[in-house]
Amino acid sequence: MARESGDAGTAKASKAKRQRKKKTKENKTRTVHANILYDHAKGEENPNRHYANNKIKTTKYTVLSFLPKNLFEQFHRFANVYFVFIALLNFVPVVNAFQPELALAPVVFILSVTAIKDLWEDYRRHRSDKEINHMDCLVFSRAQRRYVEKYWKEVRVGDFIRLRCNEILPADVLLLSSSDPDRLCHIETATLDGETNLKQRQVVRSFFDLDCDFDPLKYNSVIECEKPNNDLNRFRGYIIHRSGRKDALYKENLLLRGCTIRNTEEAVGIVIYAGHETKAMLNNNGPRYKRSKLERQMNVDVFWCVIILLVMCLFAAVGHGLWMFQYGDKRPVFDVLSPEGTDLSPIMSAIYLFLTMIIVFQVLIPISLFVSIEIVKICQVYFIHQDMDLYDEETDSHLQCRALNITEDLGQMQYIFSDKTGTLTENKMVFRRCTVAGVEYSHDANARRLAMYQEMDSEEEECTSHGGTLPRRDSVTSHHSAPVVLRSQSTKSHRRTGSRAEAKRASILSKHTAFSSPMEKDITPDPQLLDKVNECSSQMDFMRFHSQPISQLPSDLSDIIDFFIALTICNTVVVSSPNQPRQKVRMRFELKSPVKTIEDFIKRFTPSRLTSGSNSSSSSSLITNRSSNKGCSSMLSSPSAESTLTKLDEEQPPGGLDHAFSPVPPCYDGKPWNLEEGELRYEAESPDEAALVYAARAYKCSLVGRLPDQVTVELPHLGKLSFELLHTLGFDSTRKRMSVVVRHPLTDQITVYTKGADSVIMDLIKPPNTGNSKGKRQKKIVCRTQNYLNQYAADGLRTLCIAKKILSKDEYACWLQHHLEAETAIQGREELLFESALRLETNLQLLGATGIEDRLQDGVPETIASLRKAGLQIWVLTGDKQETAVNIAYACKLLDPEEEILTLNADSQEACALLLEESLHYIQAKFLCSSTDQAAKALHANFAPFEIYPSSSPSSSSHTVPFMVHRLGLVIDGRTLAYALDKNLEDKFLAVARSCRSVLCCRSTPLQKSMVVKLVRNKLKVMTLAIGDGANDVSMIQVADVGVGISGQEGMQAVMASDFALPRFRYLQKLLLVHGHWCYSRLANMILYFFYKNAMFVALIFWYQFYCGFSGSAMIDQWYLIFFNLMFSAFPQLITGTLDKDVSAETLQQLPQLYVNGQNSEEYKPYMFWMNMIDAFYQSLVCFFVPYFAYADSDVDLFTWGTPITTLALFTILLHLGIETKTWTWMNWLSISFSIALFFTVALCYNASCPTCYSPSNPYWTMQRLLQDPVFYLLCVITPVAALLPRYFYRACLGTLFPSPVQVGRQLDKLPAETRRNILSLSRVKVGSPLSPKPPFLSLTKPSPKGCNKKDQRSFSSSKTSQAKKGPVVQTDEEKGRRSPLGPTDSEKGLSDLYTLVPTDVDTLPYTKDTPPPPPPLSGEPRPPSTKDSERLDKTLEPSDQSLSSWITSTPLLSQTDRVQLTLPPDGDSQCVKYTRTSEEGPKSDHTVHPAHRTEQVAQQSLHTTL
User: Fold this and answer.
1) How many CB atoms lie within 10 A of CB 189?
2) What is the three-class DSSP state of 897?
3) Which of 545, 527, 530, 531 is CA-nearest to residue 718?
4) Total Cβ atoms within 10 A of residue 252
5) Which residue of 678, 703, 1054, 1404 is surrounded by the most CB atoms within 10 Å?
């Protein structure tokens, strides 16, 4: 206790000093003290009291604030303010038109419906908050001197927290202690950045060397750090100890809220930021309120309604003033006096009447529209949720709709921005094949194994029907067949097992270790290579036994062993044992840190060390507790021992080998493996590393342990060997490689193993000396490897080269000196370390190369192809390196092998500007110019209205200049992108990018991603959608019009920020093409219908004003006026707005081109609003005057004439809805019947029971009398028919003579299923051209256009040659006619005017609302819009058929790749540009080294700048 009071005393003494300091730093830093020092102090003395607690609250309202706050928010809607104003105006006696209480009813109803919806949403947020706040964690209590369980919400800044394995962090914690012997703590950051791999965090330096466990009571330091901020990758501060010593704090010391502790039994830390001040919460700044495009258009029309209303009221007021004026001084008998009893002047009467008319005509502004839209959107979201096609059984996750107010925007998207890793790919890297020492091992059995996984996907239904498990197949070639076929624990196989519980268990298991599904782990070795590995290891075992030098081992075998050692140790993979899930094995005998000083180096490499047994003790150190691998199993293997011996044999004098080849190897503990403990788990930072380690393990070369200073591997026959790890030179994006420097346990040689991108490794290979056989062999290996690399790249595999280098002691000592200087430098440390790595990684010896497949998610290529056909532009923005990104882009069909690639890589702003300039010139030169300038001018003159897209449909996405999308791909890296997004260059960048069919931005930061989206959205005025799966995609998701998060294995940060969450990328196709299309179509039609309905009803009263001296009275009872919109006509349109389907889901997916309908806002154009208004006024005239003349000169009273008008208006409005409804269900019939029944029921009851409700008029028994009158029934038939004839006629003509693509789709739906399928598969129908005002439709027998001769036809389709391999190529109409001698069937004949045959790979590009759709495209088969056009085309292009074909076929054939090299001359020369055009045919026969990678070929095609 004495010490405690002493502590408190010191605390008080230093308090004054701190107060002074605090004032100066208040705005920059935060000071954190340990709370236990202030346990007994009063609350106000605790210096941490000002910081946020750990309770989080994401709700908007409290019980007290709900009503005022919610009303305040609702009154942001102009319409709501307007309606409340009208209702209040009705309380003023001079101008009131209805009973005030009655007029208030609709407004109150609407406000309450919205309030209830908001309350429900907020309650859901509250429940989620409560769940999080009541999670448990261990907090140190001074009173109990131990860690006690507390809720997360009770944690405070300054508390000590004990974290256990697999526990989620409750706050941002500074790591002070870890049970890990290396003082490390491993965390998984999936919830923050979507990455499932492990990150290492370090204990604060000053607590590193504690001998015992950390004791919070002894802690008395103070932490100064930066204020809370949202930068996940930055943390700066220092810790001040009692002695006054300061230690720096880095981001490596901070554990962030939401991460999960892995691989570490327990850790202790102090809370730095809590609750809403944590970095995770600061990053989650809630979704911005997004207003849909349709809502913005609608607001304009609401404004027009206000104008119409004011014009009508003004007209009535002027009419009333004039009418009063004509009486002069004689007041009419029925004149109403002012409240004071005096006469009103005509002007005052007119003003009062103006206000009265606003109340009477208020219905013109559709109050119920806003509530109906809310209800319809909620129903639409419900139905999207219920769609089983969007449910993913593997992850047991549905589509989530998190933003209710933008469903219709899904139907109007024009640009999609996608992340790559985890969004397009599964983030599962699978080892596919390799080449070692110039020999290729194709791993066919492994390829069959991977194919089997896909088969199992397709066979799932059969399997589940047969009891839910897969048959076991035995494989002769592979001992892996059982685990391969019975992948019951794989994340991919859950859907085959049938059991949900099993699926969940499997997904939990697979999440437990990143990158470790059976698909990735269970690699089937190539028999030939496995034999060589076994042969090599048995020879080495024999040599070891007989103490022979290893140099006798053939060099091809020694290369093989070295190759596998490199795969096993050249990485940062952490090994864990499964019996302590994701926890590191801790036993070790001797800890040696990596070489830190020259003295250290000298000590280690003295001769005595070579012969001493110290090596054996260190190398056996790891074995004790790690024997959880199945040692004898063929899955485990480790190449390193063999290669170590190889090296030893080649380089070491035989004298030093005595201990290495003693009968019992020093590194082998002699214990048998314990098979029951299961295999080791590998925790990799990237899936590539995991894939290579698992590949090595398949050849029995296993990584069994890793410490900061040594790596232990196990090799066949040789047991365990420990490599002393001297240095790890990590991967960086400039070097594009990683190296490890190790001391070989058998030869004591210092060896460098390097793996990296082939583009760099191949340049670092030591030039072979062709004078001797060894040199010739090396040259042959390099050439062959290069050819195999080209092959791998063409197959879309991620390629890595593996190389090694042996250092003499002198070379190492010399390099080490420089390296240590670099490590200790304060200024420019990164550059010095970079140079140091470059010095080491030279003159390498090539060992081989690997091909890894990043598994695309199922259905990605098909989805991208489908979205492309729907006119969507797809850009991929990824943080991955360029080579990888380009490979994946090819694999998922984003880039086409046929299209040219422009690669923009610049080192400076000027170079970037020049590159963009040249790219624009190149695009214009190649695609816009014909063989002569004159031809070009002719083209521009004749095709002003056209936009011709080589092999794609036209479109216009700009309201200024029409532009074209060419068969070009653009690849740009992060640095160049940073320059290109500069204010001065962004327009040029956009001009280049929008001319390309696909854009790929590599190495882009999260901020750059959002800037690209913002640039495209704001400059091109297009609708954008961003889709991603990690925290790095959050900013892009929030900036886009619609943000979609992938809720896969990648954490939830992206999902939290998104508007929609999907389990897989492929579901985007149905979400946009089907649900998006439907939501847009329904809402657009519903809004137009609402405007029509209200205008039509109000106009009835307007016509009556001409007969009542514009006095503001109505012939319709006020009950009907108030409730007509709210009750009688409300339900049918809600049903239609929720359930109407203009085209079936199947047709929408098979004809993606129909999506263009929404992109161009075809369903809701400004002119449609005015058409509807005119129609409404016409229909109201019919509904008013037919009864007027029917009852003329009769003795009916006002309401007996007004009630039929109301009834006829209701019938007309409901029939009108019937004409506009595309899909009839029993609910549509029911809702219409219900509306009519409700109207008559209310009318009969009201008329029977309310004789004096609203004196002086008397509605008593009105409806009852009417129902006995035959004239009433006659009116009910004649009037609606007369009112709706023009609209019906218009719709019929439009559908018959000028059908839109959507109407054609609807006609397809009406055909029998078989016929429809035949038509679709026959032609891959492209309905007209989605862009043509008048679609040219499919005729199976029409002759080809006369403007194009046969040569032209060939040239049109020549760019499609590659499709021959993929699917049936569509013939020209002539050929088709020849092919089908029987001619079309009747139903097909009927449709022969409706379809155009178009190649399947047609791409359309969105255009904005401002440009009218251009005429039909010039593409392969469709006929031109008219003969005139085709003649004009003919005339223009006659001078040169050749130029036409080269102009239209912009895409080179597959057999040759065009390369565009832009060379800039050295400074001083004039700035001219040379275009060199070459064609590369496959791999060349000579032995020169060609760039391997597909990306290298791309680079050859691409634009380079050499400054």
Assistant:
1) 23
2) coil
3) 545
4) 14
5) 1054
Q: How far is CA 1011 from CA 914, 982, 1033, in A?
A: 22, 10, 12
Q: pLDDT at position 14, please?
A: 52
Q: Is 419 a catalytic residue?
A: yes
Give the span between the Cα atoms of 1437 and 941, in whole angstroms: 12
Give residue 1260's pLDDT band: very low, low, confident or very high (50, 70, 90): confident
In tens, the pLDDT along 1284-1299 reads 999 999 999 999 999 9
* Nearest residue to 161 via CA among 244, 219, 206: 219
Cβ–Cβ < 8 Å for 1090, 369: yes
Give the active site residue among 193, 419, 526, 562. Answer: 419
Q: Which residue has the tokens 């969004």?
A: 423
CA distance 791 to 797: 9
SS3 114: helix
Angle of CA points 380, 385, 386, to nearest 5°: 100
Structure tokens belonging to residue 1123: 């409730």
Contact 1042, 1059 (CB under 8 A): yes
Host H or E run for residue 1014? helix 1006-1020
Give the span between the Cα atoms of 1373 and 1389, in whole angstroms. Answer: 15
End-to-end CA distance of the chain: 73
Torsions phi, psi for 1228 (to 5 deg): -65, -50
Instruction: Please tell me whether residue 1489 adopts helix, strand or coil conformation.
Output: coil
List Cβ neighbours of 1243 (8 Å cut-off, separation of 6 or more).
1120, 1203, 1262, 1263
Lookup: tokens for 47: 């210096």
Phi, psi of 1161, rounded to the nearest 5 degrees: 50, 45
Query: Quick check: helix, strand or coil at residue 703?
Result: strand
The contacts of residue 88 (CB under 8 Å, 6+ apart) are none
Q: Give me the torsion for CA of 1009, 1011, 1015, 1018, rounded to 10°.
A: 110
Helices 1350-1358 and 1441-1448, packing angle to 10 deg:
20
**Residue 626 structure tokens:** 């790690």
- The answer to whether residue 323 scores a pLDDT higher than 60 is yes
d(CA 486, CA 846) in angstroms, rounded, equals: 38
Per-residue pLDDT, averaged over 348-371, amounts to 87
Whose CA is closest to 1498, among 609, 885, 594, 727? 885
Retrieve residue 509's tokens.
């298991």
pLDDT digits (tens, 9 = 90+) for 1019-1056: 999 999 999 987 778 889 989 999 999 876 555 667 87
CA distance 550 to 560: 14
Q: Which of 4-13, 66-75, 1319-1328, 1348-1357 has the lowest mean pLDDT?
A: 1348-1357
Order of strands, edge to edge, in the sheet holding 1060-1062?
400-401, 1060-1062, 1042-1046, 1024-1028, 415-418, 873-877, 996-1001, 966-972, 900-904
Name the DSSP class of 1408. Answer: -
Token reading at 977: 């992108």
Mean predicted confidence (pLDDT) in 52-72 = 89
Task: For residue 1188, give both structure tokens.
Answer: 């007027």
User: Does the predicted TM-score (pTM) go above 0.90?
Assistant: no
Q: Tell me the residue length of the chain.
A: 1507
Q: Quick count: other Cβ atoms within 10 Å of Cβ 399?
A: 24
Q: Which residue has the tokens 């680079």?
A: 1499
Confidence band (pLDDT; 50, 70, 90) for 731? confident
Please report where in the chains the tokens 């037919």 appear, as a residue: 1186
**Structure tokens that stand for 385 in this block:** 């949720």
Phi, psi of 662 (to 5 degrees): -75, 155
| Beta strands 966-972 and 996-1001, pairing class | parallel
Residue predicted with more confidence, 804 or 775 = 804
Distance CA 157, CA 49 (A): 8
Q: What is the dihedral of CA 381, 387, 390, 394, to 10 degrees?
A: 120
Rounded to an integer, what distance in angstroms lies between the CA atom of residue 861 and that of residue 858? 8
Residue 1179, CA atoms < 13 Å, CB-side half-sphere: 31
